[in-house]
Amino acid sequence: MSDPIRWGILSTGNIARQFARGLAELPDARLVAVGSRSQEQADAFAEQFDVPRCHGTYEALAEDPDVEIIYVATPHPFHEANTRLCLAAGKAVLCEKPFAMNAAEARRMAADARSRGLFLMEAMWTRFLPATVKIREWVRNGAIGELRMVAADFGFRAAWNPNGRLLNRELGGGALLDVGCYAVSYASMLMQSAPEEIAGFAHIGETGVDEQAGMVLRYSGGRIATLSCAIRTAMRHEARILGAGGRISAEPFWRAQEAVLTVDDEDQRVSLPFRGNGYCHQAAEAMRCLREGETESPIMPLDESIVIMETLDRIRAQWGLQYPADEA
Ligand SMILES: NC(=O)c1ccc[n+]([C@@H]2O[C@H](COP(=O)([O-])OP(=O)(O)OC[C@H]3O[C@@H](n4cnc5c(N)ncnc54)[C@H](OP(=O)(O)O)[C@@H]3O)[C@@H](O)[C@H]2O)c1
Questions:
Q1: Which of 74, 97, 124 is the last residue before a domain boundary?
Q2: Domain count, the chain
Q3: 259 - beta bridge partners?
Q4: 15 Cβ inside 6 Å of ligand 1
Q5: 219-250 per-residue burial string, b: 16 or more CB within 10 A, e: under 16
Q6: pLDDT tens across 117-163, in order?
Q7: Which residue of 12, 71, 241, 266 lies most exposed, with the fewest beta carbons within 10 A?
Q8: Range of the domain at 63
């Protein structure tokens, strides 16, 4: 086995913890450092996940000479600054979804990584799950004939906490950026292009962010995606992929462990569990890229992350939903 890839984790929140558990699934990965805004939080995280070095600032983590790649897991308004801090220190970066607050930020992040020749990828972990890989393969190989429609829904009812990340506009709150981005990214992955036209409605709640939304995206050739998302309404989490000769369904699509291919009313159910909590698959792809000298993953390329952010910008523009980052 080649030398392990040495990871750092930037922040100590919910998904940072999940990712640390996921990384432990990979024998060729080492979690060597964590960085937090507080030394106390970094120490506690390090103790829980057996991390050798804990830094009380993000800057110190970025400068840690033993770290090769940093996973950025802060709320979305900080993705650009945190990612670019790590890139400036010569580190590869895997950055949480949504990649940024808007397309302008995403473009700057991509340009920065490219100009430095460093690896950068959005942590859209769904794409790397074995069940999603199988679905892409079915669609690409024509198992459902010509692709015509994609439907995807992702919504849950979060507790009312106007200061928390989900509802607070300053922290990038709202359903579209939190979970709608999965649905938009899924449609992008399958349609392989940007939508030509978009129509959407949202309920903007009392904290000024979208609590639920429904969208229709029209792609070339009359292909259509119907997507919905919510942070205050419990929904099914299903994707339906409809072709001229059959259909595919997966639920929950964003953490799929099985998929059903239906052709001529015959169901073929395929079980493809992910490893551990599923977060290791994206990390394995980042490590493959690092080992093979690739600065972008063909499965989640930077240009597509930018197109997805452009789509999210276009949807938000219809609702008049602005964030502080849009004023920069
Ligand atoms: N892939 C997935 O399945 C998944 C799931 C959940 C979330 N996410 C994404 O991951 C990101 C983080 O979400 P999360 O649920 O982990 O959030 P969280 O539990 O609130 O944790 C965010 C962490 O970011 C750091 N942070 C830096 N500046 C902050 C600020 N001003 N306010 C609050 N926290 C700040 C904090 O770590 P320190 O105190 O240590 O600095 C905090 O613990 C979001 O972009 C979200 O979309 C992805």
A1: 124
A2: 2
A3: 270
A4: yes
A5: beeebbbbbbbbbbeeeebebbbbbeebbbbb
A6: 999 999 999 999 999 999 999 999 999 999 999 999 999 999 999 99
A7: 266
A8: 5-124
Query: Pairing relation of β-strands 239-243 and 147-155?
Result: antiparallel
In terms of domains, do 198 and 264 share one?
yes
User: Residues 175, 231: one domain?
Assistant: yes
Considering the domain architecture, whether residues 29 and 117 belong to the same structural domain is answered as yes
For 153, phi then psi, to 5°, come to: -130, 135
Q: How many CB atoms lie within 10 A of CB 254?
A: 21
- Average pLDDT estimate for 183-209: 98
Which residue among the candidates 97, 165, 223, 247 is catalytic per the annotation?
97
State if residue 78 touches ligand 1 by the CB under 6 angstroms criterion.
yes
Measuring CA to CA, which residue among 125, 98, 148, 83 is closest to residue 256?
Answer: 125
Q: Are residues 105 and 206 in the same domain?
A: no
pLDDT-based confidence at residue 179 (cuts at 50, 70, 90): very high
Distance (Å) from CA 111 to ligand 1 centroid = 24
**Are both 109 and 70 inside the same structural domain?**
yes
Concerning whether 97 is annotated as a catalytic residue, the answer is yes
Distance 48 CA to ligand 1 centre (A): 18
Chain segment 258-308, per-residue pLDDT in tens: 999 999 999 999 999 999 999 999 999 999 999 999 999 999 999 999 999
Q: Which of 206-210, 310-314, 324-328 has the lowest mean pLDDT?
A: 324-328
Q: Is residue 177 part of a domain?
A: yes
| Mean pLDDT rounded to a whole number for the chain | 98
* Residue 301 covered by a domain: no
